[in-house]
Amino acid sequence: MRDLCVIGLGLIGGSLLRAATQTGRTAWGATESSADADAARTDGFDIEPAVEAALRRAAERDAMVVLAVPLTAAESVLRTVAELAPHCLLTDVTSVKQPIAELAARIAPQSTFVGGHPMAGTTRSGWQAGDAQLFAKAAWVVCVDEDTDLTSWAEVATLAIDVGAEVVPTSSELHDEAVARISHLPHLLAAVLAHVGAEDGPLPLSLAAGSFSDGTRVAATRPELTRAMAEGNRAALLPVLDSALGMLGAARGALASTGSLGATINAGYEATRARATQAGSPRSPVRVDLTAADAPEALLALGAQGGRITELSDDVAVGALPMLDDDHGQQ
Amino acid sequence: MRDLCVIGLGLIGGSLLRAATQTGRTAWGATESSADADAARTDGFDIEPAVEAALRRAAERDAMVVLAVPLTAAESVLRTVAELAPHCLLTDVTSVKQPIAELAARIAPQSTFVGGHPMAGTTRSGWQAGDAQLFAKAAWVVCVDEDTDLTSWAEVATLAIDVGAEVVPTSSELHDEAVARISHLPHLLAAVLAHVGAEDGPLPLSLAAGSFSDGTRVAATRPELTRAMAEGNRAALLPVLDSALGMLGAARGALASTGSLGATINAGYEATRARATQAGSPRSPVRVDLTAADAPEALLALGAQGGRITELSDDVAVGALPMLDDDHGQQ
Q: What residues of chain A lie within 8 A of the CB of B174, using their CB?
């Protein structure tokens, strides 16, 4: 099992270092934040004094390097990787995949890069917010792109599974479109709702209960983190924002003209049922032979159908697919 | 203490009947739903065989009548009230206040009407979803309008406090504007998010985690309930929808032109801080003498500043105000 070098010890990096160490893997970390480094060291983890030292050790040990820094810091860390650990297997946990893949190809072209993204988060950040159980049953995207080496892909997928996650194989492009819908749009709607709720003084906030609290929760995330992920996914986010604006505008028009919100509210209700159906449906088992010529296509098909991989061994990926009617999940 | 007659035994009516009975008040209910009536009777509550019988008993006992039916059913129940219990003290728990006040004045002009709205709910409905603890610490709007009789207002406010709620005095108009912001807009944004998340097949839903689940939770509410409350508040909801559309459109424009979502995301973040400040601020005690000439204005000022009333006795309302700087809650 390859050693692990985690650069960045915030919520995700810190949780990964804890979880990987717990599975018995040799793992060390480093961060530019001396507060996070000190806290991690106090908690008994193997923390190098600087990012450079961590990457030199990774090069010596041929470790897997995990970039666990915000998108805005990725370029600078990749330059250090290219200088000190240029041939390492490299993955990341950033919330957008195409920009990172392009950066890695441009700045650290000698490394073997496989993009990754665990779908786990809270509104808290930093080492103290981390938790070895953060990834339990969470989806962890491991990207299958045209140039992806499947042996390296399997190594990254194995790390994700070892720390409790379930692997979703998809392309960087489809990942970015998906997270625009289910992560970046929710953050923007939460910001809009929080602002509109507060813009008229104390009375509305005094009456706010469950629907407002739920709808605004992620607006409390540190703004620079939300900005980094949403602005970094601009190309995929724009058409999704247009979808949302179109639907909200249509609701406004219908309410003004006919007084009906039926189309909007029914569509939302049906969509929540489609999601519940997909989440609760029986699963059919799937096996993908990673040595087969069509393995990339088979993995991409599995991800596109809502499938997840829960086991990897002997060049075979074992997973499960929700058994959906044609109508489900396609509302 | 006046007896209580609750018409409608869904989530709110059923919870109120349970809570009022628990405080020792003589209380009975009735509903058009034989399933809810049977369940309530099985649970040991005093359920009349029909709405008419419940209202005749209210007239005999000069009870307080609570309309706990959806807005769409209010007109029909009010006609029965006007026929069988025309002089009773009447309140309601409907989520819009101006339309109900107008209906009551038109259909049951001999009754003394005081509008009410407990800000408590779940996505579940029906008798089985009810809970005597539903109103604990919840805001319960009791309306102070131009024609409100303060003695009757105090009786309704006492009922709300008796079942654990805190009373927010405000006008029907300001109530409707406030709930458009903090309840009806969240329901519409949840519907939009749920639909946009599901419109591209199973992959995005397979990756959906906390931000999407929180942002879509209330889209699972029965569509006819959401429609009744949002469509019934059309006049107040339209300008709030325009605010949200304007802000989301500005975010779209900024992302497309400059690549920045800073204005949107920072405004959302600042608003969550304003709300936390308001919720967590020290309270200053307030007393309102309900016999004073300016009592209505004093009550409205208390509500406008985010205050709540927690005690009523001897014509004095005792409450507390958050101590806010001028900037707080006014973002």
A: 203
- Cβ separation A265–B178 shorter than 8 A: no
| Percent of all residues in chain B with a pLDDT value above 90, rounded to a whole number | 89
CA distance A56 to chain B (A): 34
Q: What's the CATH fold of domain A180-260?
A: 6-phosphogluconate dehydrogenase C-terminal fold (1.10.3660)
d(CA A42, CA A91): 27
Asked if A279's CB is within 8 angstroms of B205's CB, the reply is yes
Distance CA B290, CA B288 (A): 6
CB proximity A323 to B under 8 Å = no
**Longest CA pairwise span in chain A (Å):** 70
Rounded Cα gap, residues A275 and B217, in angstroms: 11
Q: Suggest the residue from B206, B214, B227, B264 to mutate for an interface test with chain A (most A CBs closer than 10 A).
A: B206
- Option in A175, A214, A223 nearest B269 (CB): A223
Contact by Cβ (8 Å): B10, B68? yes
Beta carbons of B184 and B230 less than 8 angstroms apart: yes
Contact between residue A284 and residue A306 where contact means Cβ atoms under 8 Å apart:
no
The interface predicted TM-score of the complex, written ipTM, equals: 0.91
At A6-61, the pLDDT tens digits run: 999 999 999 999 999 999 999 999 999 999 999 999 999 999 999 999 999 999 99
Q: Say which DSSP state B120 is in.
A: -
Closest CA to A212 of B15, B119, B168: B119
Which of B171, B193, B213 should be substituted to probe chain A, the one whose Cβ sees the most A Cβ atoms within 10 Å? B193
Any idea where the domains of chain B sit in the sequence? 4-170, 176-260
Give the CATH number of domain A4-170; options: 3.65.10.10, 3.30.980.10, 3.40.50.300, 3.40.50.720. 3.40.50.720
DSSP per-residue letters across B266-317: HHHHHHHHHHHHHHHS-EEEEEEETTSTTHHHHHHHHHHTT-EEEEEETTEE
Give the number of residues written for chain A. 331
Angle at A99 between CA A97 and CA A104, to 5 degrees: 90
Considering only residues 81 to 140 of chain A, which have any Cβ-Cβ distance to chain B shorter than 8 Å?
A: 119-122, 138-139
Instruction: Compute CA distances A232 → A31, A94, A97, whole Å.
Output: 22, 10, 9
Most A CBs within 10 A among B95, B168, B175, B195, hence the mutation to make, goes to B195
Q: What is the pLDDT of residues A280-306, one digit of tens each?
A: 888 999 999 999 999 999 999 999 999
The dotted CATH code for B176-260 is 1.10.3660.10
Checking if the pLDDT of A223 tops 50, the result is yes
Residue of chain A whose Cα is closest to the Cα of B260: A231
Interchain CB contact of B59 with A (< 8 Å): no
